[in-house]
Design a protein that fits this description.
elongated, mainly alpha
Length: 122
C-alpha cells in the first residue's frame, strides 16, 4: 500500500510539472512593464557598459530611488528647489559611476557625461 502512495505522489508531481511547462510554452508573452521614466537611460547604460546582472540590478535600484526623490521634489515648489534638484542629479550620477560601473569604465562614463550632459541624469 505504501508503494502505491509513492507512485501516486510521483504521478501528481510529474503531471503538475508537465502542466506548468505546457502553460509556459502556450501562454502569450507578458508585456514588459514600461520601465519608468529612466528606462531608456537604463537600457543605454546596460548596453554601453555591458553591465552584469548584479550591476544592472544595482542601477535599477538607484534609478527607482532617484525617481522617487525627484517626484518628492516635484510635489514642492520646483523653482525654489532647482539647486536641490541639480545636487540630487549629481549625487545619483556619482553613485551610478562609483557603485554600479567597474573602475575601468568610469573614465569612459565621465567622457560620455561631459560630451552629452543632457542625455544623462541631471
Amino acid at each position: 500500500m505504501n508503494q502505491l502512495r509513492v507512485w501516486i505522489v510521483l504521478l501528481a508531481l510529474v503531471s503538475g510539472l508537465a502542466g506548468f511547462a505546457a502553460g509556459r510554452l502556450t501562454a502569450p508573452p507578458v508585456a514588459a512593464p514600461d520601465g519608468g521614466p529612466f528606462a531608456d537611460y537604463r537600457a543605454r547604460m546596460v548596453t554601453a557598459f555591458d553591465l552584469t546582472p548584479d550591476r544592472e540590478r544595482a542601477l535599477e535600484v538607484l534609478l527607482d530611488r532617484y525617481q522617487r526623490d525627484v517626484e518628492a521634489l516635484k510635489t514642492q515648489n520646483l523653482e525654489r528647489h532647482q539647486p536641490e534638484l541639480v545636487r540630487l542629479g549629481d549625487t545619483y550620477r556619482g553613485w551610478i559611476r562609483d557603485k554600479v560601473l567597474p573602475r575601468e569604465q568610469r573614465a569612459r562614463f565621465d567622457a560620455m557625461v561631459a560630451a552629452s550632459p543632457a542625455s544623462y541624469i541631471d
